[in-house]
Specification:
Structural class: mainly beta
Helix content: under 10%
Largest sheet: 6 strands, antiparallel
Order of helices and strands: EEEEEEEEEEE
Radius of gyration: 19 Å
Number of helices: 0
Oligomer: single chain
Length: 146
C-alpha cells in the first residue's frame, strides 16, 4: 500500500541522502516513522486494544481496520462514558499486518476479559466476534462463575 509522507511538500532532510526522515499517516507515532537509512514505517490491519471500565475491570481484544485509515495507532487512548456513568478508556496496544480481507474491516474480537470478583462473574477467556463497526462496537455476555 502506498502512503504520502505527512509533510510531503517539505524537505525531509537537509544533509543529502541518509538525512531524510518523516512519517506516514501521523507525525510523532514511532511505528509510522521512516528514513535515515534505518527507520521503516509500519502500518497494519489488525490492532490490539484494552478497554478499562474506570474501575479495576478491563478487557482486551483486536479490531480489524483498513490500513489506509489512521483512526488507530499504538499508544492512542481515548475516553467515553459507560453505562454506569464512569469514564472508561480505550488504549491501542499494538498493530500487525495479517492480510485481513476488506469484508472483515470493522470487526471487533474480545479475547481476555477481567473477572468481576465482587459479583463472582467472569467472561470466558476465548476469542469471540463481538460485533462490527470498529470500536466501540463490541458486546458480549458475562457468565456466572462456578
Amino acid at each position: 500500500m502506498e502512503f504520502k509522507p505527512v509533510n510531503f511538500n517539505a524537505a525531509a532532510g537537509t544533509g543529502y541522502l541518509g538525512s531524510e526522515v518523516g512519517y506516514i499517516k501521523q507525525a510523532g507515532v514511532t511505528e509510522y516513522k521512516f528514513g535515515q537509512g534505518y527507520w521503516e514505517a509500519d502500518t497494519g490491519d489488525t490492532y490490539s486494544f484494552r478497554y478499562s471500565f474506570g474501575n479495576d475491570d478491563w478487557y482486551t481484544g483486536t479490531v480489524y481496520l483498513n490500513p489506509a485509515y489512521n483512526a488507530y495507532y499504538p499508544g492512542r487512548s481515548w475516553t467515553n462514558k459507560n453505562e454506569s456513568g464512569q469514564t472508561g478508556s480505550y488504549s491501542i496496544t499494538g498493530l500487525s499486518h495479517n492480510g485481513v480481507a476488506a469484508t472483515a474491516y470493522g470487526q471487533v474480537f474480545v479475547s481476555i476479559t477481567m473477572m468481576v470478583m465482587a459479583a463472582n462473574l467472569l467472561l470466558l477467556p476465548q476469542r469471540r466476534d463481538c460485533g462490527g463497526n470498529r470500536l466501540p462496537g463490541e458486546r458480549s455476555r458475562l457468565y456466572q462463575a462456578g
